[in-house]
Amino acid sequence: MKLVTFDEGRVGRLDGDDGLDTVIELDCASTVEFFQRDQQVGETGQRLPVADVRLRAPITPKKFFHTAGNFTAHHQELTAVDWSHPVHKGIVFFQNVDAIIGPDDDIVYPEGLTNELDYELEIAVVLGRAGKFFSPEEAVEHIAGYTVFNDITARDIQRREMQSGVFSFSKAIDTFCPIGPYIVTADEIADPHDLAMELRVNGQVRQTGNTKEMVISIPHLVAYHSPQGYSAGDLISTGTVSGVAAVQPNPFDFYLQAGDVVEAEVQGLGILRNTVVPWSAAHDTEPYSIDLYAPVD
């Protein structure tokens, strides 16, 4: 099943004999509720052409666990970046769920905060049931689906955060968390550890990889962090593949700019497309700027 949220929060699944051209509305208030009810949800009888609806972020989870350093090639290329601390495999921190946006939503460039806006193609794993303290073998029963995630990152802010060996704010600014275009339920993905991944900016390929390159498998990753406790509908990301702007010889030739169209694609999970817009396109104020260490008047 390809599960969507559309218009003002309605839930549906995609269908169509010749493609995913129809939304069949489901009788639940949210995709979180869909998973809380163990996917046992009926239909309302409403069938709508996809062209007539507005797809939204497919889910707003209670928690979003964020993984770093979990793809071999990306882990190796990080040695070229002058971080103050190493990025160890399987690092997890919490993403800001209020920063989530969906397909065709705009990524707003906060020029007053950063001039090093980067992309990171990832998969977000959807937890289908609550649980804690379970094994990798048991984790399979908790994994309900997958969606595409583009981990937008302000690298200049990240370098400052890394001086303390952590990062969060650099990835959690408003609109920095695109996910979508839908959730593909686990039964439709024969092998989540063999999915091609590609990210393009204005049609130019920037990142390529495959989930077979992950250092830690998805069930192991999900199980390892289960002591923190999961709720139905929670997300946990897999980490990114190689090719981010920050590791390029001249990163400023690759960092995102206003007007860029970013396409994040994972085999079987669809294409997540977002456009980068300037601050002025979303706000009627000067770009927000603040210095944590500035003297207080």
Automatic annotation (TrEMBL):
Any single biological process term in GO: small molecule metabolic process
Gene3D superfamilies: Fumarylacetoacetase-like, C-terminal domain
Pfam families: FAA_hydrolase (PF01557)
Claim: Glycoprotein is one of the keywords in the record: no
Transmembrane portions of the chain: none
Superkingdom, natural source: Bacteria
Positions of the Fumarylacetoacetase-like C-terminal domain: 64-277
Keywords associated with the record: Hydrolase, Metal-binding
Gene Ontology MF terms: hydrolase activity; metal ion binding
PANTHER family: FUMARYLACETOACETATE HYDROLASE DOMAIN-CONTAINING PROTEIN 2A, FUMARYLACETOACETATE HYDROLASE DOMAIN-CONTAINING PROTEIN 2A-RELATED
Family: Belongs to the FAH family.
The name this protein goes by in its record: Fumarylacetoacetate hydrolase family protein
Organism placement in taxonomy: Bacteria, Bacillati, Actinomycetota, Actinomycetes, Propionibacteriales
